[in-house]
Amino acid sequence: MKIVLLSIVLVLAGCAAKQPVSSLKTDIVHSDTMEIIRSAAESAPSGVQGDFILEIKAAGNQGPFIYLNSELDYRDQRAVTIAIHPRVTPLFIQRYSVPPQEYFVGKTIAVAGEAKRIRINFISQGKPTGKYYYQTHIRVTDISQIKVVGEYTLQNAHADHYELKAFSRQEF
Hints:
The chain has helices at 2-17, 33-42, 89-96, 100-103, 154-171; strands at residues 48-55, 58-62, 65-69, 80-84, 108-124, 127-140, 146-148. By secondary structure, the chain is α+β, with helices and mostly antiparallel strands.
């Protein structure tokens, strides 16, 4: 009886170890925005470094700065904002033929950077009112910090093609 039980356990363990990678769960796991916000608040005035996956629901700009938001209302306490530096915008337009606020809305992105709590002052007639609230921003200062999750660009296709050609030569 012990041998039969041991045999079954070993067979099942062997099957589990040999499970093909393609059958593993590959769903995109979004970052928990409330956890990002909490961590940024706890580490203020510093921020929290990380790689974050967020769905972009809205966008806007203030002057030359572009903001991508994880909520429809950027003032929502659950919102995480991606703040894109103006010097990066021309690179986005060159790559995607549209500004970031048009390209990224409705898409899931991966963004690498520091999530940091930022104080936003209310202004009335050009003067601070003394009232404020906080937002959590991830600043993008380099185009390589942000990409659409699962995006397969022409650049990737060319890279794959060259890898295949190099691999083929090594085989022969």
